[in-house]
Amino acid sequence: MKKILSLALAMLMTATFAGCGASQKSGDNKAGNVLETADQLVEAKDLVPAKTDKKVGYQLEDPEKGEEIAVVTLENGKSFKIRFFPNEAPKTVYNFKKHAIDGYYNGLTFHRVISNFMIQGGDPNGNGTGGTSVWDGSFEDEFSKNLININGSISMANSGQNTNGSQFFINNTQTSGDINWDMYQQYYDLLESDPNTFMQYTGRKGWLDMKNAGDDYKELYNTNGGNPTLDGGYTTDAIGHTVFAQVFEGMDVVTEISNVPTGESDVPIEPVVIQSIEIVVYE
To answer: CATH second-level architecture of 21-40+54-174+239-281?
Structure first.
């Protein structure tokens, strides 16, 4: 039986919340120029993360002129726009863009919607069990300390480490300013002092590494909301979800999806269908 692609055990915490390289522009990476290579398949091995001078939080900036962005249009005519980060997550960005250009996502649904958490899509089976990468399989995680799972960020769904295919999700806790960092610290201290008890209590082997969660990191979550336990670049066991894009326009549409009525397995009662995902140049 295929394993349903899901998120790391952030749901536990969501309920608790109430919830030496030179700088490069995104266009320098092959993954940033997928429109130029859409008629051919770039080898995954040729796509490697590039060092940049970017700092955590830059994902909230608007795209630069000439960047490739995506316009996601729903069957109901509403749409939102996303910016990509090909330097930090080149394989993931290329995979998503190539799928979009090939029409892979057209007609698929946001099959899993959890209010105050996230919306998930990209599965041709429509139930969380399907999907493959453009390389006919899965590919490895691409974690970056510069890109985190704040609201509006787009990350890869997976069934464990290095199992990325086609499914993705958009973080949307719809809250900010109410993250209990003391609670995070308490869980971290428990992990450090008694790993077995921590795993029995949480079902996890790792946790947010509070030694690396600095003030800038915390302030971004305090201001924007989101799901810190999904940040693979900040967890003690390097397990999480690759952030590769950010909604920069139309977040109200994402929130509207987040609030649709759902039934069993968090499936929307009325299907939320992706009509198209168009890759265009930002002007």
So the answer is: Beta Barrel (2.40)
pTM for the full predicted model: 0.91
Which H or E run includes 156?
strand 153-156
Rounded distance between C-alpha atoms, residue 39 and residue 156, angstroms: 24
Q: What is the pLDDT of residues 73-125, one digit of tens each?
A: 999 999 999 999 999 999 999 999 999 999 999 999 999 999 999 999 999 99
Question: What is the DSSP annotation of the chain?
Answer: -PPPPB--S-HHHHHHHT--PPP--GGGSGGGGGGGGTTSPPPGGG---------TTGGGSPPPTT-EEEEEEETTS-EEEEEE-TTTSHHHHHHHHHHHHTTTTTT-B--EEETTEEEEE--TTSSSS----TTSS-B-----TT---BTTEEEE-BSSTT-B-S-EEEEE----S---HHHHHHHHHHHHH-HHHHHHHHS-S--B-TTT--HHHHHHHHHH-B-GGG-TTTBTT--S--EEEEEEE-HHHHHHHHTS-B-GGG-BSS--BEEEEEEEE--
